[in-house]
């Protein structure tokens, strides 16, 4: 086995998900990622897992469904998928997902409207489990030749694969003598940034840049978080590995203005390029894009609140991912290279009890990047005072 695969598997199991003795482990991956999947499963059993349940997602099967299923069945997801997720929460299980595009461009010629109505493999019950903090979970990248040639199309396939692996090794800190220790240090830095933002108690954030003039209101108890989480059982885990963001839940009724995505995004297997969104009273009322606009509109109309924001995140472009300046075509990595927002569901843990009923609730949660060079972020106090937060993508606080 490639030593890099083993080191990444060890980091995911021992630090990212932090598998505990006796735990059930949910392990999900796309077809084509079997080698890392098997290494993670073996590592989980080495840590004392009771049972590792591996599920593979095949995007070719999803394409067949979108092309052939009856229109009235497009949004259907079998209820036992959600029941399984809820049972993982009741069992205080662990969950790992191996990210990275499995079949780039597979859906380029599929009907965009139909594609936007099918959010599988997302299962909405996951947000309930995450809010309950009963599962220690981790999403981590899995390099493949298909993904590598998508990112580095100017290189021959094997060279592209090696380049992608070099980048994953660096941004996951596998090039450090003790990767877990390096991540604990980075976790402390992110938690410190979140603490500074919480001390400032902003009423809103103002994003300004080419094509962007967006004000995102915050709730009275919006609380910035980052650098890892703990379950109700006190199990620390890194939900995103790597992670470079601090994030909170906005007021879903107080987003106004226009915003331009600074990176393409691949959402539910769909590439959306040149995205532009206008918000009014919290709702996305206009969605345009050079490619994928109809699909994005489909996601935003999934339910009543899918068009509202559920997350706002700040990222320093001088982080390991941001400094690399590589477009990975994967939300896990690209959202940790630039500040971003997400339409759809909010994380309950980022507000206090008085605002539990005010955060956005939706079946979807879809991030898109709006920060980076040329985009400034300013904090707005309740009295109108403006405080620089990010300038040209660099922390100013």
Question: Summary?
Answer:
The protein is α+β, with helices and mostly antiparallel strands. It has helices spanning 3-16, 34-46, 59-68, 79-90, 112-116, 125-132, 145-151, 157-171, 179-200, 293-300, 320-324, 331-334, and strands at residues 24-30, 51-57, 94-99, 136-141, 204-209, 212-218, 229-230, 236-237, 245-248, 250-260, 265-267, 270-272, 276-280, 283-288, 309-315, 340-344, 365-369, 376-380, 386-391, 394-395.
Write up this protein.
The chain is an alpha+beta fold and 397 residues long. The chain contains twelve helices and 20 strands. The chain has helices at residues 3-16, 34-46, 59-68, 79-90, 112-116, 125-132, 145-151, 157-171, 179-200, 293-300, 320-324, 331-334, and strands at 24-30, 51-57, 94-99, 136-141, 204-209, 212-218, 229-230, 236-237, 245-248, 250-260, 265-267, 270-272, 276-280, 283-288, 309-315, 340-344, 365-369, 376-380, 386-391, 394-395. An eight-stranded antiparallel sheet has the order 14-13-10-6-5-18-19-20. Helix 1 crosses helix 2 (34-46), helix 4 (79-90) packs parallel to helix 6 and helix 7 (145-151) crosses helix 8 (157-171).
Quick one: biggest sheet? 8 strands, antiparallel
The overall average pLDDT, rounded, is 96
**Tally of extended strands?**
20
The helical percent reads 25-40%
Radius of gyration: 20 Å
Q: Please, what is the oligomeric state? A: single chain
Structural class: alpha+beta
Q: Name the strands of the widest sheet in spatial order.
A: 14-13-10-6-5-18-19-20
Provide a count of the helices. Answer: 12
Uncertain runs with pLDDT below 50, 5 residues or more?
A: none
Which word captures the global form?
globular
Portion in strands: 25-35%
* End-to-end CA span: 45 Å
